[in-house]
Structure formats: structure tokens, C-alpha cells
Amino acid sequence: MKLRLVIVVVGSAFVFSKPVRAQEKVELDQVVALALEQNYDVKLYKNYAESASADDKYSIGVFLPVINANGSRIWNNSDQKQRLANNTERESNGIQSNNLNGAVQLTWTLFDGAKMFATRARLSEIEQQGELNVKAQMVNTVAQVVNNYYNVVRQEQQLKAIVEQMTVSEERVKLADRRLQVGTGAKPELLQAKVDLNAQRTSVLQQQTIIQQLKDQLNGLVNMKLPPVYDVTDTIVINLELKEEEIATNIENTNYSLLSYRKNMDVAALALRERQGERLPVFNFTSAYNFSRNINTQVINDFTLLYNRNKGFNYGFTVSVPILNGFANRRNIQQAHIMVDRQTILYEQQKIQVDVGVKNAYVNYNNAKKVLLIEEENILVAKENLYITLESFKRSATTFIELRTAQQSLADAYNRLINARYLAKLAETELLRLNSGLLK
Fold first, then answer.
1. Can you give the pTM of this predicted structure?
2. In this structure, are residues 176 and 400 in contact, taking their beta carbons and an 8 Å threshold?
3. Do 121 and 283 meet the contact criterion of CB atoms below 8 Å apart?
């Protein structure tokens, strides 16, 4: 990748332009949109939600009757031998007959202890929970994309800082060589300047590897839908106006993970209602239409029918009353109560974790803002100090060690500033993830 660095001197500080790259620029919004559409985790949760939606869609069936049709046609070919009480014997071979039977049966549960209503409501709650889980995964995926995207930006800013340091090191090499030629310098100064320059060249290569790996990871989050070669923005955009009370207020109704845990409580309560309904009688309406026909082509008993047909319908009601089933109902109800308590505990535990997460994230966010303000000021001081030291070194008014120290101070200042920006962005993203603000 070819880089071109432009240096402009303004006042007493160096201003370095961004390296020029012939690559397509990808904005964060584009990556987020692709992730919400292409990310495999989001797709999986959408698939789970579709499954729950299908169950809820057809749950109306618990209120409908069950209708079954049965039919059969049987051909018989048999040999018969009979001996009557008066010792008369009758025998015949190849006796043929055929039977035709058909029936349509209907069973309609009119009352089952209100279990059918609880089942329908439980499936509806599961569908809503599926939608919440999709949104929760979308929030987590957006947070992952934002953090990864700005990590690329962070590493490119680090690369830019290294390239800036290389320019100063190249100047140091030239000055040390010139001073050595005129007899005012020492060879170790020249050698150290070359060592520092080569170390920075190595750092550039390492930094380019890190950037490419991070870009590939980001591309993987969107199912490799980004261009093979692309660039990102050069700025980490940070919202410095977030307030803890705004994030924490009503978070139990904005955090999708918490809402999903609450749905678990509702589902468990409805499952308990289903179990309780199993203790009550089941009242069914039943009806059937039956048809049967039997044809015998030959008989050996004069009282055997050659042709017999029956058809008609019936209807009625049945009641099933549970009396004793080995305490299965009692055990199931007790287990359902335990599940309700368990889901309540899990919800309260998750609520505490979210509350603590907000507090911790805001502490990180608030401290990162303070550090960022200090480092923004410090980078200007470090740049000015390096400029003054470099100019003094040219006039032999300062030592080689002082120049190298000033250069290292600027490198350290860049590292702290870039990290401060990134950590502030991470803290902001975590706060917005916790109250689902990333989807708004």
C-alpha cells in the first residue's frame, strides 16, 4: 500500500495529513445495516423467532375439534369346516367375502380446566419473547460492529502516528549524519537514529497486519459483504453528553435482555396455569358417522348373512375426571411453582447485573472523558516540545538524548490519546447497548 505524507508547519506544531489510499471508503452506518441483515447470529435468532411465531399462529387449534376419518376394505378367501351338535358336518373351500368399513369421528374439548387458554397465552408470550431476543441480539451485534469498526480507526490512527514519528527519525538520521561529517557529532548518535527509524518501519508493517486482520474480522461480522479492499473513516466520533440518569431511568423497559427474562417469568406462570388445569375434569363432545358393509359370496351355515350393511351417526358427551395418577399432577404443579420462582430469581439477578453494568460503564465513560480532555491538551504540548527541541538540535543548542526523549514523549502522548478516544467510545457504546439506544 502506497502512503504519501504531507507535513505542514503551523506556529510551533507539526500538522500531518492522513495517508492517502486508493480504497473504497465504508461508513459505520453501512456496516451496521449489513450486519443487521447478514450477521449469522441475528439470522439464527430471527429463525428462532419465526419458529415461535409459527407455533403461536396455529395455537388457535387448541380451541378447535379434532376430526379423524378411517376406512378399510378387506377381502377374505378361506376354507371352513363345521361340526354341529347333531354330528352333522359341513365343509367348504374357497369361501370368499369382502368387508368395507368407513367412519368419521369428531372430538371437541369443551372444557379442560382452562388449560387450552393458558396454552394459547403461553405460545403468544413465547412469540413475543422471540422478537425481544432478536432485538437483543441486534443490539449486541451493533455494539460488536461499532467496537470493531472503531478499533480499525484506532489502529489506523496509530499507524498515522508511527508514520509521523518516522519523518522525525529520518530528520534525526540526516542531522546526525551531517554533524558526524563536520566533526561535531558522534557515530553512536547516527546509529541510534537508524535503529529507531528501522524499529518504526517494522512497527508500520506490524500495524498494517493488525489493521488487515481487524478489517477481515469486521467483514466476517457482515458475512463478507464488504469490499475486499476498503477504508474506514479517520475519526472516532464520541458523544460526550450522555447522562447516567438518562441511561438508568426505566432501563427495565428498554433493555431487551431484561424484557426477555421478564417474558420467561410470564411463560413460567402460564405453564403453572396449564398444570393446575390438569386437576380439573375434561368435558368433550363426541360424534361419529359409521358405515360398514359385509358381502359373503358363499356360506355353509344357513343362518350366516350373505349381505350386511350398517350406517348411521352418533353423538354424545364424555367426562374424564382425574382421581389418582400416582401424584403426577401434584408433582408437576410443584415443579411449575419452582420454575416460576427460578425465573423470578434469574430476572432479579439480571436486573442487578444490568444496573451494576450501567454504573460501571458510566464510571468508565466519565473518566475516559476526563482523560481525553487531558490528552487532547497534552498532544499539543508534546508536538510543540518536539518542534522546539528539533529546531534547537539543528542549532546544536540541545543534545541528541533530549531530542530522542522529546520524540518518545510525543509517541507516548499519541498512544495515550488514541487509547483514550477508543476507550471513551467503548464506554459510550456499552451505555447505549445497555439501554438499547444503539437501535434508536
1. 0.83
2. yes
3. no
What's the pLDDT tens digit per position in 370-392?
A: 999 999 999 999 999 999 998 89
Which grid coordinates belong to 149?
469498526
334 touches 276 (CB < 8 A): no
Structure-block grid coordinates of residue 184: 561535531
Q: Which of 232, 229, 237, 235 is nearest to 27 (CA)?
A: 232
Residue the block writes with cell 451505555? 431
> Using CA atoms, how far apart are residues 163 and 16, in angstroms rounded to an integer?
9
259-292 tens-digit pLDDT: 999 999 999 999 999 999 999 999 999 999 999 9
Task: Count the neighbouring beta carbons within 10 Å of the beta carbon of residue 232.
Answer: 22
Answer yes or no: CATH 1.10.10.10 is held by domain 22-64+112-280+322-439.
Answer: no
Indicate if the pLDDT at residue 426 is higher than 60. Answer: yes
Cα–Cα distance, 147 to 139 (Å, whole number): 12
Give the closest residue to 32 by CA, choosing from 157, 139, 152, 133: 139
Any idea which residue has 368399513 for its cell?
A: 101
Query: If you average pLDDT over every residue of the chain, what do you get?
Result: 89
The length of the chain is 440
CA 438 – CA 3 distance, rounded (Å): 35
Matching residue, cell 419452582? 338
Amino acid identity, position 206: Q
Domain ranges of the chain: 22-64+112-280+322-439
Whether residue 244 has pLDDT greater than 80: yes
- Alpha helices (H) in 395-437, listed in sequence order: 400-434
Residue spans of alpha helices (H) in 278-327: none
- What is the three-class DSSP state of 226? coil
